[in-house]
Amino acid sequence: xxxxxxxxxRSRAAYSGGARATGPHPARKGLPVVDPQTETSxxxxxxxxxxxxxxxxxxxxxxxxxxxxxxxxSTRLTLVEAPAGWGKTTFVATWAGRGEIRQRQVVWISxxxxxxxxxxxxxxxxxxxxxxxxxxxxxxxxxxxTPGVDLVRVTLPALINDLAAIEHDTILVLDDYHxxxxxxxxxxxxxxxxxxxxxxxxxxLTRSSxxxxxxxxxxxxxxxxxxxDDLRFREDEVDELLNSVLELGVESDLxxxxxxxxxxxxxxxxxxxLSLNRREDRWPLVDALAGDNRHIADYLxxxxxxxxxxxxxxxxxxxxxxxxxxxxxxxxxTAEAGxxxxxxxxxxxxxxxxxxxxxxxxxxxxxxxxxxxRAELERVEPELVxxxxxxxxxxxxxxxxxxxxxxxxxAASDIPQVTELITRHWYSFVQQGQIDTVVGWLxxxxxxxxxxxxxxCLTQAWNAVNLGRLDEVGDRIAAAEAAIAPGDDSVEAASxxxxxxxxxxxxxxxxxxxxxxxxxAQLAVEKVPDESSPWRSIGCPVLGIAQIWxxxxxxxxxxxxxxxxxxDQAHNHLAIIHGLGGLAASQAxxxxxxxxxxxxxxxLDLVGTYRLTEHxxxxxxxxxxxxxxxxxxxxxxxxxxxxxxxxxxSRGIARIENSYAMLTLAQIRNAKGDPVGARALLYRAQQRxxxxxxxxxxxxxxxxxxxxxxxxxxxxxSEREVAVLRQVAAGRxxxxxxxxxxxxxxxxxxxxxTIFQKLEVRSRTEATxxxxxxxxxxxxxxxxxx
Length: 786
Description:
The protein is mainly alpha-helical and 786 residues long. Among the domains are: 41-231, Rossmann fold, CATH 3.40.50.300; 235-306, no CATH class; 440-498; 608-713, Serine Threonine Protein Phosphatase 5, Tetratricopeptide repeat, CATH 1.25.40; 719-785, Arc Repressor Mutant, subunit A (Orthogonal Bundle). It has 42 helices and eight strands. It is elongated. The two termini are 52 Å apart.
């Protein structure tokens, strides 16, 4: 089955199974293993924790002063910006838990570094919104996991349109937004901030506003800003913390001194309170507080942790490598028993541990506390860090939490385990659209480790195909083949070589090199002649489609039909849809339109069943459906179908199918009495095919369509020459054209001389009219001149 890919921000092109596999495939070298997609109990709890307002300890300082002026509904964006330890999350969570606030729709998303995958990030936002606003986001969810769909231009506008229909105010809280660094996510957030409906109010909690496009909102008065100065404790709040919450009985003079020393920094005050609780003589500790917050934190951390038992200190240090904690996980990491009770006691001791679920099975350390503990671990037991991460990786792997297992295996520098985990699981992640997650896994590995593994090289090659980076695919395939021992004649080595060959077939087809695609697939089949080889379901549909467009219709149809049962067995519905589209086009171009339409309808029925309506691989079925409508005289329906096909084809990078859709739409336009529009489309198809090394029968089909639309298309004009011609048609002088295109006047003059020769015209006016008559121009200026 062909590995899949996610929604398009960059161009993404390959295709996949489209639906989840129902069970694991046997572990075969070169073939990704798809595990059953069962969500573990731990996974559910941790996901739920990301989508719920964090639990706040009862009896904390109420902060009425700040709450009275905190009203996110009054503005589009509320930015809560401050460094670690200033109580951002606690303050907003406390506000969200108030009775009158709970009546509103508050959607809370706790972010982490793994959420830098755009599909994962927007999936969490959509899930959170859907829980509070049922029924929204259906289209956005369909688009989100569909390859080739532009996130900013298609997916988010669909979500924004849904949100615009909500009549009540909805507050979306994004906690720890500073962890999001992906530029695609930031671009999407800029669109949401700019065009989101008035009923959507964002509250963003972050250490830094860097990367947020907020200047325009600030200038328009559409945002409120809460910073460290707003969050810092006043002296009366320090007194409340120390004497009402922690019940320390601290005299007023010492409260004042502590407030001055910490400047109201909440984390420092809390650490100081824990330290004071263990001292009879409190003034020396407070007087010793000096320097910046980090220095104060280090000093107080030593005071707090130093007063604990050695066993508790050891537990805190060693479990600090974990982002989330539960009893069994901590038992595994520390290689000791009793962690569940230890976590409960730590929570009771106010040691910066936060419960993640109502049953208090999962916890996390406060971010600042965790950072300090990890620094302490590196200082006291640096030799143990890799071992702790390795134990965490083993536990997460046994629990089925692959991303967490990979995170810790990478931190442990366990390259063999990382390689195995990626090889086994990358396909299932990409199948859910999370290609950026997989790319991140590979990017964190040393390049020599990747190059030494044929499996990882092939994974990189698939990613490059998926992202539309065809220029990188050949290098990755060559690296995969080089990593296989030259004299290795084992079944595993043969399967890997076949996998590389089938991938090269797909890459060559995408590039418009039909002969190269056929040759690569046939060589791969020779390497693994076994009919049951899993790679047959990958290459044979593409091989067959390449043969059809190369003028070998019967051979191509035979390959596709033979591949269908294997693709079905592998649950590769998209490969079946693509193959049926190839059969439909083959029959239609041979004159049997009824048979072609039957294949197209079968494909489009599967498209609806498996929610693949936005995938570019459905292009040929839409084209043949339109041809049938045209034959029945239903020009309007045919035009709508073809317009849709051209839109879908433009999302992929398969030159052949893109050109086929455009030339067929040109036939519709010509049938509707628009030969100029038809020739414009045909010229675009011609230019698309001009960059194809071996486009088979497609150029001939374009020439036939051009003849039917009133004459041959001009040949040989480069993109630069077309750009010059369009500037001339707009009435610009040579000097103006040169300035607009950043060329010299001499270069513009040379281009015009070449254009005149190619078009066999003698003047600028004749060149402009020729180009207009042949659909090369579509600007308003050109239309007025005509």
